[in-house]
Inverse folding.
């Protein structure tokens, strides 16, 4: 193809095939972010100073990152001035990693660790008030015992069962007793501790 002397060596604007791709489409395609985009359950452990406002700053950051916290359990450690948070949420691996890094930058946050893929001991406690009648009360009591739970209150019309276990085990128990009727339910949210000799709190003390 010969060039048009009047074009000063430039490609004619009327020939899209000869233009670079970004000129044809107007703007370059958006750069894909790393990560699969698939969400899964994550468990984060945060060691923070036991000060007013810390919990609010943590939850506000997660809200700003568009995360819905599934559960959050917090209490002080063996040190009165240090608290430990266990946060469970669903998100893409990369998005959760970025949120954890931002969380670590907050004032009064001493350590953040994603223990999702690590061997841990995980437990949650739930109190379930189950509707009970004269005809099914004994059946409910046996079921609670078989589920490794215990009855903490027994009155006419209801039974309060205390059960502990992983999130999945609690979910299973709740779905099964739902056939009797659940009058009230409260769950603490998961708390976790890594197996082995290592300790996230020891890393902070060092």
């Amino acid at each position: 193809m010969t060039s048009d002397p009047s074009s000063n060596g430039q490609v004619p604007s009327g020939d899209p095939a000869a233009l670079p791709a970004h000129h044809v489409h107007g703007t370059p395609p958006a750069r894909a972010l790393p990560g699969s985009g698939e969400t899964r359950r994550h468990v984060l452990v945060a060691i923070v100073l036991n000060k007013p406002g810390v919990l609010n700053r943590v939850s506000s950051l997660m809200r700003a990152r568009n995360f819905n916290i599934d559960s959050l359990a917090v209490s002080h450690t063996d040190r009165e001035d240090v608290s430990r948070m266990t946060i469970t949420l669903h998100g893409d691996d990369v998005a959760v990693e970025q949120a954890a890094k931002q969380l670590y930058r907050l004032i009064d946050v001493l350590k953040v660790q994603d223990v999702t893929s690590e061997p841990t001991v995980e437990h949650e406690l739930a109190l379930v008030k189950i509707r009970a009648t004269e005809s099914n009360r004994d059946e409910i009591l046996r079921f609670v015992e078989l589920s490794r739970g215990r009855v903490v209150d027994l009155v006419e019309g209801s039974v309060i069962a205390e059960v502990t276990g992983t999130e999945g085990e609690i979910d299973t128990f709740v779905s099964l007793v739902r056939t009797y009727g659940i009058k009230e339910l409260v769950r603490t949210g998961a708390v976790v501790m890594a197996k082995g000799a290592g300790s996230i709190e020891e890393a902070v003390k060092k």
Remarks:
- The chain has six helices and nine strands.
